Structure formats: structure tokens, C-alpha cells
Amino acid sequence: MRSILKAKNSIVLNNLPILRNDEIGRLVREFNLLQNNNNSQIRSINNTKTRMIEQERLATLGQMIGGIAHNLKTPIFSISGANMAIVELVKELKNSVLDERVERKDFKEIALDIEKWTKKIDNYLEYMSDVITAVKGQTTVFSDDIREKIVLKDVFKNVRFLLEHEIRKNNIELEIKNYVENDIKMEGNSNILVQVLANLVQNSIDSYEDISKNDENRKIIIESAYDKSKKNIIIYVEDFGSGISRDIADRLFNEMVTTKGKRGTGLRIIYV
Questions:
Q1: What is the tens place of the pLDDT at every residue in 173-185?
Q2: Alpha helices by DSSP H, the chain
Q3: 20-139 in CATH: which number?
Q4: What local confidence, expressed as pLDDT, does residue 28 receive?
Q5: Would you say the CATH fold of 143-241 matches that of 20-139?
Q6: In this structure, which CATH number among 3.30.1330.20, 3.30.565.10, 3.10.20.310, 3.60.130.10 belongs to the domain 143-241?
Q7: Could you report the per-residue pLDDT of 142-154, keeping only the tens digit for each?
């Protein structure tokens, strides 16, 4: 199943001008009163939708953070182990200085071992920094006013960081096919794009819920391509899960339609 997106907005109308103080003017006033009441209801509905979407976003983020916290345990323990190894090597180096039997090559071996463990720590710290950056991007209040140059490679990396635990837990392979060169950039809010893709990938993960974890085809593919003629970047999210029934597919972009029962609001795909 390939995922698609669609936008939808409510319309708030302005009042008609009252140009006469007669029956027509009275009717215009009554019409404006009805319209103001309708506009108020529309704003109230929109505010409710916004709150529901934000609650859903934070709930999803909470689930992601739980998985990310689990993933961070590995590098934290690894850094602790590497630090202990370096401490022991430093002790060995100090003892070797006064030992006449120790040759120059022995000092070189100790130095190389220290360098090896230091590089491992650097790699673990870089990984943790990237993960925390990805999470911080999703905790900010999103704004359409933010315009930045977006490199797809970085977006895909953040999506993988955010959902790595869920993917492993559900025995799913995430394959990223990025056919867009790094010098071709999108303009917009990278955090919103990460959220959109993360939601689509999470939907794909959910689609495997009723499929055996031993199934060989438990795969999600994110694929990007650049249309030179239209100067558009196209992103596909594809899975081989249970899919969406024709009945739901025909109503997919209607509000409050969801396949997730109490877990879904049916708003995200319309307003994201």
C-alpha cells in the first residue's frame, strides 16, 4: 500500500455590509447574525480539532520516546564499558613507563588500543546526539512560517532514529531508497516533514499487526525520486501489510474515519 496526503480547510466568511435601514437592512443583520454564529461554531470545531491533533501527536511522541530511551541504553552502557577499558589501559601505560622490559612497540599497542576505544566513544556520542536532535525537533511547536532548506537524507535519518525501536520490536525491515541528490533541496519545515513520514511509517507498522512476525515480507520502503520536468520531489511510503478495505479507502479523507478504533482520531491524514 502506498500512502498519500491531502489538505482540507474550513471556511470562515465575512459579514455582508449593511447599506440600508429598512427591511432589507434588517434581513442583512439577521443573516450576519446567523453567519457570526456559524463562524463561531467553525472556530470552536477547528480549535477542538487542533487540540485532538496535538494530543495525538504528543501520544505518538511519547510512544516513540519510550522506544528511543530503550535504544539509548546500549550506547550508554557501551560508553561506560569503553571508559573502563581506557582507565585500565592508562593504568597499564603508567606501570609500563617504569618497566625496563616494556619495548617501544608495547607503548604503541597501548596507544592504539586507547585510540580505538576513544573512536568508539565518539561514534556512540554522535549517535546519541543525532537521536536527541531528532526527538527535540518533534517536541517543538510546529509552524508553517518556518522555511528552511531540507536535505532528504537528513529527514530519512531522523525518521529511522524515531522509529528504530518500533521497527525492531515488530521484526520489520525499513528500506530507504533515496534517489535524490544531496544538492537538490526542498524548502519548508523539516520537522513537519519528519512527522508526516514518521506517521506514515507508523501506520505501515500497524498494518502488520495481524500478520505473523515470521513472515518474510515484513518490509516498509521509503522511496524518493526527483521529477526534473516539474522540479518536484516525490516521496513514497510502501508496505505489504493488511492494507485498507475498499469501504474505508473510499471514505479515507472524511473526518473521524479511522481503522485504529480508540487509538485513532481520523483527523491526522486530513490536517497534517
A1: 999 999 999 888 8
A2: 23-97, 104-139, 152-169, 190-206, 246-249, 268-271
A3: 1.20.120
A4: 65
A5: no
A6: 3.30.565.10
A7: 555 678 888 999 9
